[in-house]
Write a structure and sequence with these properties.
By secondary structure, the protein is of the alpha+beta class. It is 42% helix and 31% strand. The mean pLDDT is 82.
Length: 131
């Protein structure tokens, strides 16, 4: 009878330990699930700028056969390009002017932060090469 009581006591002890450990894991799992839910909701609120179309810059007349124009472009929260300036010139004024004109025609969906559209400034490049 003493052996049965000891076994019963040990079994009860292990059941108690198991319930304490598993309740802690349940809290950890529910905390993890809540954090994932918050993260997913945050990601739904925050989205990067999405370019829908980027017009090509026309070659035009230029004595050089190639060039690269890098621009700093302001993508407004109203889905309009409000500013474009040359950061690196191609060496041909015609290329650079056409790059600015093309950049101002970019169609996009504004970036979103905390569920609201925001204005962002990005670098845009146009590469010119005559064949």
């Amino acid at each position: 009878m003493k052996i049965i009581t000891t076994i019963f006591t040990l079994l009860l002890f292990f059941c108690l330990i198991f319930s304490v450990v598993s309740s802690g894991q349940t809290n950890d799992l529910s905390n993890f699930a809540e954090k994932q839910k918050d993260k997913n909701q945050s990601q739904e609120k925050d989205k990067p700028l999405e370019i829908k179309s980027k017009p090509r810059a026309e070659m035009g007349d230029c004595l050089q056969s190639s060039g690269l124009t890098r621009l700093r472009v302001t993508f407004d929260k109203t889905a309009k390009v409000t500013f474009a300036e040359i950061v690196i010139a191609s060496g041909c004024e015609g290329f650079d002017k056409r790059a600015i004109k093309a950049a101002k025609g970019i169609k996009f969906k504004p970036a979103v932060k905390n569920g609201e559209p925001v204005t962002v400034v990005k670098s845009v490049e146009y590469i010119f090469q005559k064949y």
